[in-house]
């Protein structure tokens, strides 16, 4: 709700698409810049404590901005909203790393069923990503900024209140023995010491480049080239979210039957093939279908990565290493935006094809070299 609703709030406040884009940057730039700090905090203080503090702070910031918007307008209101975007992006990163660390603990405890834990967690993420933007838009339309910001603040406070105490935190997420200043170096050194994980992250980063480019190019392709309405763009991603949820639910059974590696290789094929075909889709139904298939395969790849990642990264440095891996996986998003800015619209299809080639090579290397590991605990692990 905060990621998509706050830029909508900026658009409603300023009626400026440029300032709306700036709001997106202010929401994402702090997240990219605070990965290391979030990972160090989780390793040092434990995920539950960091999650509660981040959620409570987000509720506090939202509570301060809501009345400010009610009594100000113009540049003062804009400044308040942009400040909220930056703060929400930063605090969301702490919440995300903390929640992922708790998910890793649950996966370790699940042993062979780790992939089931991760598929449930990813399903929750996908559902929130589907419901949150729609809820934020409805609240903005119904009650202006107050309703949406009250919902964000209320949900943040509720999250802080119900976060578990994690009595076994010292066993799974101990007080970090690494100095805070060395958290970033710890994450990088751990990643370098785990070549299987490094290959997987590199392959999926290239896959994310293709995904990010499709997200950036879809409005242009659907509206300008296929002649559909802007509402049709939303339908593309709604169908993709539904396909992702179905794929995540199904992959629990398929991984039980065929194993994590085989399912991952199959998902890589399912993801790569539509990416090549998307560049040549000449109708809206074909484009929508190919995007849905692409996203279904991508969601299964996310389950595979998260399962293997949780298995390979030592618990005592999980937060720091997770921060580095997620940073590498998200860097393609601003890169895709830059590519869209410098490439002529008539060359978008060629750019998609190039990214599809890179994606295929990356995933081929990932599932050739990235699945050769010795499990630390159990048979399967994310």
From TrEMBL:
It is a multi-pass membrane protein. It is found in: Cell inner membrane. Pfam families: MFS_1 (PF07690). It comes from the Bacteria. Keywords: Cell membrane, Membrane, Transmembrane, Transmembrane helix, Transport. Its main location: membrane. The chain crosses the membrane at residues 6-29, 50-70, 76-99, 120-140, 146-163, 193-214, 234-251, 263-281, 287-305, 317-342, 348-373. This is MFS transporter. It comes from Streptomyces griseoloalbus. The lineage of its organism: Bacteria, Bacillati, Actinomycetota, Actinomycetes, Kitasatosporales.
